[in-house]
Design a protein that fits this description.
disordered N terminus, 41% strand, alpha+beta, 212 residues
Amino acid sequence: MKKSILLLVVLAVIAGTAGYGVRTAFNSTLKKPSPAFTVVWQVTDYFPDGTSIPRYIETRYVSGNGKWHSVKNGADVNEESFGEPNKGVFRKQKDKLYFVSELPVLPPLTEEDLVNSRNYLRTETLLGYKAIVVSSGNRPRTGSEFYVVPALGGEIIKEVIADNKTGLKTVHDPISLTLGEPDASVVALPNGLPIDYETIKAMRQKGSGKPQ
């Protein structure tokens, strides 16, 4: 697959999955191994009137083999999700895992690919790393921005999700980033839990308009 086509595919996936987490969709397409690290985000909603509300803290543990584990904690948010290449992304809820999306392994996007894309916005330094800031999907410059760090395997380290209808912006701001391989038990899928594939299947059928 040509890199220009791959980039459009990746960014289109981002645009189509903003409801769950665009970072998950983008990172799922990048080839591993890559540097292992743990990143902590403060997620905040910013309103058009200038007010803001902190929503939750998210910690993501990323292994060099591509597995990851995300933990969200806030006043009204308590969520865990796991990713394993070629197996999928799963959300843990009570004593069950819910399949969210595929997690394919594709060739990595380089800094040159990102900078030469029509979705390229600018280059910044974030937590000491060069970040390539891009917009999403096939509608560049809609207000949503993703800070991709090539030195970390193309991971998104910051994102700004803009709702052009309401003016709301949700920002995932990195608080800290620590290099190092997390314990294997931290990123492993929980053993013994049933996996629900039907919920996401029904949602996709409903969204496509096809009969269930």
